[in-house]
Amino acid sequence: DLFFILFPLLDHMIDLYEYHFIGENMKWKEAQEYCRKSYTDLATVSKQTDMKRLLDSTTEQYRAGAWIGLQRDWCWSQPGVEFNESKWSPGQPDNYGNQENCVWMKNDTWDDDSCSRPYNFICYDGENMWRIDPTVMTWLDAQSYCREHHTDLISGVKQLEDFKTQGQNDANRIFWIGLFRDCWSWSDGSSFSFRSWDKDEPEKTLILIKKNMIWEEGLYYCRDHYRHLVSITNQGEQLWVQERAKTASTPYVWLGLRYTCTLDFWFWVTDETVRYTNWGPGQSGDDCNMSGAMDREGTHQSVKMIDDDHKFNFICSK
């Protein structure tokens, strides 16, 4: 619980958010409900001037903590499919143990679960065509398989409804679907990408894990025990990661950087766009099995493309 909440009231005539500050102690969901009932929603910040006005609306004694409308949300594996409907089982999602970030379906309802559990899965093949795979895989393996051999994991309520209409659903089985918790969004639905994270948030609390794992194992370990494999989006973050990497027991440490051969681009597992990598010299390639690693020696250009079957230490963000 935090000591106060900030509220915006949108003035459409001047296209500005009017921030209101309430000195009450609530959980985030309670604050969201209160804001929606009494004002418009929890505070949205679209640019730096908004950030300044938001801070000006508080007092020094309360600046240590206040809820705004930014939340970690659910998103679909298929690009362009929006998360706007859900079919959760009663009491779900519960994020038991703070490690349930992927979703399976049974009896036409959903439950969240650890992404490292093996289940059957449903691939979408385009134009209302699906494939129920008889093998069991972790969520990430299932996603990779569907993207390589079909289109993607089945995504969106419409695809699931069409799948059910065609009578392909086996009510007694569990299937991974393409829903996972790994996106940041604003409570009022705004699409603003502006962020003004504090110097220690959200990726700067880093934990070097001195276990030798392949990239995918490191990904699941971080998601199950902390948050993510670490992302690097600017030079300051790179320097921070380099400091952690210096004490590694392997020559490289895995980062949350991955290449998708299906979509032909590199991406961070925390959903940030790859605008900054600072690749080491001679680094280029589009191998489907490549992931990003940090050179333990911490040179200026120290991010390497390495086959993800190598076993290295890795860095998690809390």
UniProtKB/TrEMBL annotation:
The keyword Disulfide bond applies. SUPFAM superfamilies: C-type lectin-like. It holds the Pfam family Lectin_C. Residues 14-124, 119-203, 215-288 form the C-type lectin domain. Keywords: Disulfide bond. InterPro entries: C-type_lectin-like (IPR001304), C-type_lectin-like/link_sf (IPR016186), C-type_lectin_CS (IPR018378), CTDL_fold (IPR016187). This is C-type lectin domain-containing protein.
